[in-house]
Structures are given as structure tokens and as C-alpha cells.
Amino acid sequence: MSGYKTLYHPFAVIKGNKIVFDKKSLPIFGEISGDKKRRLAPGNNGQKSILFVRVVAADGPPTPSLNDISNKAFGTFGATESFRAGMARCSYNQLLMNPASVAFASNGVIEISIPQKAKGNSDNTIWNAAHNILMAKLNVNDMSTVVDHLVYCIPGGTTMIAAAIAFIPGYISWYNNEYCIDPGTVMHELGHNINLSHSSELMGEYSDATCMMGWGGWPNCYNGAKSFQLGWYAPRTQVIDLLTTSVLNPMTFTLIGTTDYQNPRNSASAMVVLKLEAGDRDYYVAFNRKAGITAGTNEYGDQVLITKQNDGGENSRLLAHLSSNNSMLLTTVLIGSSFYDIQITVNSIILNTDPANAVVTITRTLSKVSLSSSPVYGGAGGGDYSGICPTGSFVKSISGWGDGAIGKLMMFCDNGSLLGPFGWGEGAAVEGQDCSSGFSSTSVTSGTYVGKIEPICDSTRFKAIGTAQGGGSGQSATFTCPGTQKLVGVKGRSGLLLDSVSFLCADYVKAASPMYGGGGE
């Protein structure tokens, strides 16, 4: 587990029929069945009903009482902080989680007794038993026709290693004992129900401590990528296509925090989130204001955050946190036959005004670096992808996921930028080793798809990503960058697998790193 200021608990989510835990937790995967328990997400706007189920096992109940659960969920008995209050604050009352009114329930909570013991049994066994008894008690065949969200509080003592698990998307989540009365945990898991993935930083599954889908703290809301996805601040979001020829001049924007979304003193042009589209890559720029409804953010308060999240439900990844007068070369994009560098500069962060704000400038300039590329290895399936380190930086490490064939590929540049992930398959994770001098050679095995990539640092072969021959006959090859060039990027085609790959090389000239720092002025 990654160590951060506040370590909530080991979360897990269900993707398809797999329970996916933090990559350093065990087990990595668990299986679950029962399509009756899955349906489409209830949505992220409107009035939603939620029922908490206190599961009493043969050897005892969960620690929280019925009143404890209702109080921390809805503030029924005067709790100043509750799950409902947190979600209402962040959505500006666009999503209201109300106690479900069903037979035998009181204040949104119902108690169900089961004949099984919690001790030694799996969490799956316990909540499934409760689910079946609940449906019989209410005389229904599908709980999703009765409530929008269903939360099971199960007793301690099961084999459950996570604090909580949820379907993504879906309507059911379940919690290990007292975690069902932690508002932040419930807000995280119900975020999965409405189709939010985890928020990461580098390789850590939940390591973005600025967001409730990571280790976000309390009170807090969601990062720029998730905020844009939810649509709660749509009037103050803007999409910029970095590939259009009209975007040539520097563009300057004023950013405000989520907590100031409805501040009456906002200027008409103030934005909560900027979405920068670069072909198959999406970047989000937001001001992480440490005040009001986001006062509990666990890191990088009052800084500008740059987050990456592509379409397809992958985790968001925090790429940089910038203070005043800092900048980063975000990426290099191909437009026609020319490469352009995209830079983000934080001109100022002013906290002693209402609202506090950050002023950022985005520039796109013609790159002076000439690229060379390897042959294309693999097949013709999937869709196009590409990623290039900002001018003057090179690929420092190569990571990926795959059981046999490569399902997902990701590269880190020496200036801190992230390329990928490319592909959306699952599998065993291979965390890349750093090559401080940069990669000049790479071995690849491919056929109708890419089966294995083996990075070569100087003369040392690093751990391979994938183990297959790549479909068909499968051929192995080693590509070496020309002259003194280093690996700076990759392009190809991908889908569930990495269908093809071509390596990009360029001469290396030391580039500036993303600059990180404290608050503002």
C-alpha cells in the first residue's frame, strides 16, 4: 500500500466479474457471480433513495447500531458530518441521497439476521445471504426496483481484507463493520456505483490524495477528471482541443476551486475545470483550493493540479501539482507532419481575494526535435494511440499489465510526464525499473498482437511485460534507436490488447521537470 498522510483503508472495486484490489494487496483478484446484483448506475443527479442494511450474523452484529448508521449516513440524530451532507455539498444539491422508505426500515436502515456466522466466512457469503433474506422479507425479486442504492454493513470477523467493495457501475456496496459509518468511505464506494474509477498518482491504485476516489480526506470532493465526468460544474468547465489549427496563440484562464463554484463574486470567465484534448489523451487542469467543502484535501492544497484520464473507465492519474510561477511541458502532439509542445504555466495563485484563484496560461509551440521510428510490430486491430515525451525528455521507465499478451502499456518520462496507459486489458502488473540514461534498445515479440516487450537499459534487459509470442507465428525483434537517440515515445493500435507498437526515438536535450511547490501568494 502507498503511504500518505491519511491512509483510509484498502478499497476494492468490481470490474466485470472480478474484484480488483490495490496492486500490493492480496489477493489481487477475487471472483463473484450473480447478475441479479448488477445493473446500470442510478445516475449522478436528482433525488436518490439509499437503504442501509445492518447484517446480524449468527455470531453477532456489526459494531455500529441502527441509529449510529442512520446518523452518519443522513445526519438523522444531529451528526454534523454525514455521507448525505458530503455528497450534497459537492454536487451543490444536484445529487441528494435520501433514506429509503421501505417496509421494516427506520430512518433509511433495516436490520437483517442471517443463520451464517461471520467468523471464517467470506464477505460475499454474508452479504449474499442477507440480500436473499431481504428480498424475501420485502417480497421482491429485484432490489433495484425498490431502491437506487443498497449498502450492506457486515460484521467484523469475515475473511474480507478490504474495508469496502462496490459494483462499478451498479447499485450495491458492502462494508467491513464500522467502515459503513465513515462518510468518506461511503462517498468513495457510491462514487463507484455512479461509474467513477479510482484516482491514482503514478502506479498507486488510490494514491491521489486530493480526491475522494483516492485518499482524499474529509471534507473533500473529487479531482478535475472526476468533476468533469460528473458534470456538476458544467457551466464553469471548458474543453480545448489541442490538435485544432486555431489553437496557436497562448490561452490564459482564471481557475477557481470547487468550493467557489457558486460564489457570487466569480467573474463570468472563471473556470472550475479545463479539459485539454490531445487525440487519445485527455488532461484536466483544476485549482485544488484547500478551503470550504474541500478543506480536507490531503495534499497539494492551493496548487494547480494536472490530471490525466482517458475515456473507457480507467483510473485518473495525477501528473503534476504546480505552484505560482511554475510550469511544465505537458506533452508533445502531432498535427499533420509537425510536432508541437504543450506547456502549462501558473502565472499566479492569489489566496487573499474572494474568490481565491489561479491564473494559468497554455501555450502550443512548434517542436524543434526530429523523431525517428521503428517498424510497426503487431497486427492491425484496435484503434490508434500515441504518446511522446515533451521535447528534451526521454522515457525513463516502462510499465504494463498482461497475462501472456500485453493488455496495457504505460511509460514515464524523465521530466515526470506520463504516457498512456495504452490498451485497457487487465493482467499481472509489471512495475518498470528506472533507466537513468534512457532506453536506446527494446526487444519485442509480436504476431497479430504484441505479446511481449523487454526494455533494454544500456546492455541490461529489464523484466519483460507480457509473456506470449503475440498470436499467429510470432516473431521476435530488437530495435535500436539511431545514433545517440533515446526512446521518447510510442504509437500503434490497441483495444483489449496492445495490437501493435512502434517505438519513437529522438536526440536527448535535458528538459525542465514539472515544478512542484507550496501554496500561492
Question: Could you write a compact summary of the structure shown?
Answer:
The protein contains five helices and 32 strands. The protein is mainly beta and 521 residues long. It has three domains: 185 residues, Collagenase (Catalytic Domain) (3-Layer(aba) Sandwich); 143 residues; 135 residues, Jacalin-like lectin domain (Vitelline Membrane Outer Layer Protein I, subunit A), CATH 2.100.10.30.
Explain what the structure shows.
- There is one protein chain.
- This protein is mainly beta and 521 residues long.
- It folds into 3 domains: 11-195, Collagenase (Catalytic Domain), CATH 3.40.390; 224-366; 372-506, Jacalin-like lectin domain (Vitelline Membrane Outer Layer Protein I, subunit A, Aligned Prism).
- It has 5 helices and 32 strands.
- The strands form 6 sheets. Strands 1, 2, 3, 4, 5, 6, 7, 8 and 9 form a 9-stranded mixed beta sheet that branches. The protein has a 6-stranded mixed beta sheet with strand order 10-16-15-14-13-11, covered by helices on one side.
- A hairpin with a 2-residue loop joins strand 28 (450-457) and strand 29 (460-461).
- The chain is globular, with a radius of gyration of 24 Å.
